[in-house]
Write a structure and sequence with these properties.
This protein has two domains: 31 residues; 235 residues, Single-stranded right-handed beta-helix, Pectin lyase-like (Pectate Lyase C-like), CATH 2.160.20.10. It is 10% helix and 34% strand. It is built from two helices and 27 strands. The strands form three sheets. It has a 17-stranded parallel β-sheet that branches. Strands 3-5-7-10-13-16-21-24 form an eight-stranded parallel β-sheet. A two-stranded antiparallel sheet has the order 19-20. β19 and β20 form a beta hairpin. The longest helix is centred in the N-terminal third of the chain and has 22 residues. 46% of the residues are buried.
Length: 273
């Protein structure tokens, strides 16, 4: 009889331990030490931003539903670095993945139905980061003019890359480098059907390649744009970037408006002129 009670207590203890681990997944990730891989699976409901420590890997597949639309999803603070986020889906947060730190790899992740940009590089400490094979769609802010698929903003730094990513059906632009102080290398990326989401409307550019008086020589290689929605709806838009922009084997078609290619160098591109 005692043996059976012990087994029962063991089962209950294991169940409680498993439940606690899922309920406290945010605390688990934020308490992880450099060199640790936190493996996640299934679906989690989270009420606040998950701030990832330096050197930590969070690996799915897993879905994180954020209950507070005023809080970002996964964030890497400016003082943190060398974070890897892999195979994670974020839904319902403010920004989905917001990177202030350095040398991070965000791969095979999704940002869906967020209330600002799906993936964002933000600030001067955001250097040498890579977004790879990520998807961002159906993100919309209250006015429609801010929620991009992928963004490099607020003076983000050098060495950032976006590779093989897809942005579609976001309320503003697919990719927006409005205030990126240093070149971002974009390759194999697609942008389509942006400019409208969740009843909100924005510019709808495929690749907004500058703005805010900045001068950064971004490069775009084998990128594709077709965006018929929004207020502007150009496939590629230099948007007053003061530096030379380099486009190689890029393709733009069926956009609402012609491409705006001021001070652009085109190599083997087919553009909408």
């Amino acid at each position: 009889m005692l043996k059976n009670k012990s087994i029962g207590l063991l089962v209950i203890t294991m169940w409680l331990s498993s439940w606690t681990a899922r309920a406290d997944i945010r605390d688990t990730i934020q308490a992880a030490k450099a060199g640790t891989t936190v493996t996640v699976s299934g679906t989690y409901t989270v009420s606040n931003t998950i701030s990832v420590p330096s050197g930590v890997t969070v690996k799915g597949p897993a879905t994180f539903n954020f209950a507070n639309p005023n809080k970002d999803g996964f964030s890497v603070p400016a003082a943190n670095s060398a974070v890897t986020l892999q195979s994670l889906t974020v839904q319902g947060s403010l920004a989905g993945f917001k990177i202030y730190g350095a040398s991070c790899l965000i791969s095979s992740c999704n940002a869906i139905g967020c209330h600002n940009s799906g993936f964002e590089l933000n600030g001067s400490h955001a250097v040498n980061n890579t977004f790879s094979s990520c998807n961002s769609y159906n993100n919309a802010d209250s006015t429609g003019g801010n929620a991009d698929g992928f963004a490099g903003k607020n003076g983000c730094g050098a060495g950032n890359k976006m590779q093989n990513c897809i942005a579609h059906n976001n309320s503003d632009d697919g990719y927006d480098f409005y205030y990126a102080n240093y070149p971002i290398a974009v390759s194999g990326c697609q942008s389509y059907s942006n400019g409208s989401a969740q009843g909100k409307t924005g510019n709808g550019d495929g690749f907004k390649m500058g703005g805010a008086g900045t001068s950064a020589s971004h490069t775009f290689t084998s990128c594709i744009a077709h965006n018929a929605g929004g207020n502007t709806g150009s496939g590629f838009d230099s948007n007053n970037n003061g530096a030379r922009l380099y486009l190689t084997t890029c393709h733009s078609y069926s956009n609402k408006n012609k491409d705006r290619l001021v001070n652009c160098s085109l190599t083997n591109c087919t553009m909408q002129q």
